[in-house]
Design a protein that fits this description.
Largest interface: A-B, 73 and 97 residues
Distance between the termini of chain B: 34 Å
Structural class of chain B: mainly alpha
Largest sheet of chain B: none
Shape of chain A: flat
Number of domains of chain A: 2
Oligomer: heterodimer
Helix content of chain B: over 70%
Order of helices and strands of chain A: HHHH
Structural class of chain A: mainly alpha
Helix content of chain A: over 70%
Order of helices and strands of chain B: HHHHHHHHHH
Chain lengths: 92, 200
């Protein structure tokens, strides 16, 4: 697991060392790699009967997790908003 | 939006290839996707280190708003943990790993597939795509219900690119820098948090 994160950090370091040279093609490479990986994920999903048959259930689970996550983060953002807003009013 | 559709298109194309068994060997048994993931993360790192703009952008930030990414992360993880109470056959760390994608569906679904299998990986893909689309559609309502910071929190890791235009329109132009900063921090946390919740 840590191979992947270690590679990201060596990338950051190398990118920083080579910062005089702008890497203009990099975003295209990243996009292509993402396409390749999503294609591979698709192949794996399509070849797996259990997932294909359960796609509706998986979709419902995804919706439940998303709504809970978004609601949680919005409540947290609202709390920060209230705190900052009150502080601003005191300053005025 | 167009970029997201192309990505989903590749997923659908792959699913069709898998469904009709057009590739003669089983990709799940090979390490191809792991090596591609390694290459991707290396390139993502290169991009961060190579861009001097990222650091320069943060100088003009309201210091009190640095807590916003923390609020997003804690709120999301708390919500995802609660979702595991409804989804009885999923553990809390599994739900939190899905939530920890923060809308960064390409990366989180790839990670989760690698560590937890294609089933949870598919949930992560769907869940995080829904998060991005939901933010794009519901941003005005979120501002009304939860204040101006809510669409940024809801957007998660996408607030530095895809959802940035809608956020500046609904919350105001003065939130653009916060939004980019927030997206950068949350984006950066995705590989760590997803790996963490997959390993417990």
């Amino acid at each position: 697991m840590f191979t992947v994160i270690g590679l990201m950090f060596s990338g950051i370091l190398l990118g920083y060392l080579l910062r005089v040279k702008r890497m203009t093609q990099l975003n295209k490479v990243i996009t292509c790699l993402i396409w390749a990986l999503l294609f591979l994920l698709g192949v794996e999903v399509g070849g797996n009967r259990r997932i294909i048959e359960g796609l509706a259930t998986l979709g419902m689970e995804a919706i439940v997790i998303t709504l809970a996550s978004v609601l949680g983060s919005c409540v947290a953002a609202w709390a920060l908003w209230v705190v900052l807003y009150k502080r601003k009013r005191k300053e005025v | 939006m167009k970029g997201s559709l192309i990505i989903v298109g590749f997923f659908v194309l792959g699913a069709l290839v898998g469904l009709f068994e057009l590739i003669p060997f089983n990709i799940a048994d090979t390490d191809i996707s792991f090596y591609t993931l390694c290459a991707l993360m290396f390139c993502v790192g290169l991009g961060i280190g190579n861009d001097p703009q990222t650091i320069r952008n943060f100088r003009s930030l309201n210091p009190r708003l640095v807590f916003l990414p923390v609020m997003t992360i804690l709120g999301t993880l708390a919500g995802a943990a609660l979702a595991s109470l409804v989804l009885t056959h999923r553990t809390a760390p599994e739900c939190m790993a899905v939530g920890a994608g923060f809308g960064y569906y390409s990366l989180s679904s790839i990670f989760i597939t690698e560590y937890k299998g294609a089933e949870l990986g598919t949930i992560a893909l769907l869940s995080n795509i829904i998060r991005e689309i939901f933010t794009l559609l519901a941003a005005p309502l979120l501002v009304r219900w939860f204040g101006n910071l809510a669409p940024i929190s809801s957007g998660g890791a996408t607030t530095m690119d895809t959802t940035l235009p809608i956020i500046t329109r609904c919350s105001g132009q003065e939130f653009a820098v916060v939004s980019i900063f927030h997206g950068f921090i949350v984006d950066f946390s995705v590989p760590f948090l997803v790996t963490f919740f997959c390993s417990i």
